[in-house]
């Protein structure tokens, strides 16, 4: 095992075991290196790597701390990684989204508040019946993010947030080239919202599946 990898594993072990907890400050570099049997250089490289993936927070002049380890913070790295996707993998991202998002939408049906439902309705009303493709896609992202957030699972919310980026360009492309794509998307949004208002989890799941599958089906036909 490379020296830096060994250092990373040892710090990880301290966090997983509870020796270091969220918000804790790491011991001084010289002390921690001696305790772990590491060189200061390898420890420094490990800290740098773990800070990049939001495990550690290096505060200049103050020290190094364990972050909150909140799923949304940790999964920011996913958003960074998926930005490197190739165009031929967009269908794979859509397939994963089609598995996860309908489940999240069904969960939201029994948890979403009337205030949140009213906010989603206002969002669609503000968009109007003939929005630009760019405005529609921006609204689409916020619409689904609001629903998934209401499902009450921060890990699921963060995963879907990270997966939404690669499909944005495909949705814009569809809106510009497929006849009736804008109107169809608006109808599907209204249907999802109606199912949520009815607290009908299975209808919400079905409409969310239809909504994502329609983009996937169109993209398959154009590639």
Automatic annotation (TrEMBL):
HTH gntR-type domain: residues covered: 1-69
Highest taxon of source: Bacteria
Key words, A-Z: DNA-binding, Transcription, Transcription regulation
Keyword flag DNA-binding: yes
Descriptive protein name: FadR/GntR family transcriptional regulator
Organism: Streptomyces massasporeus
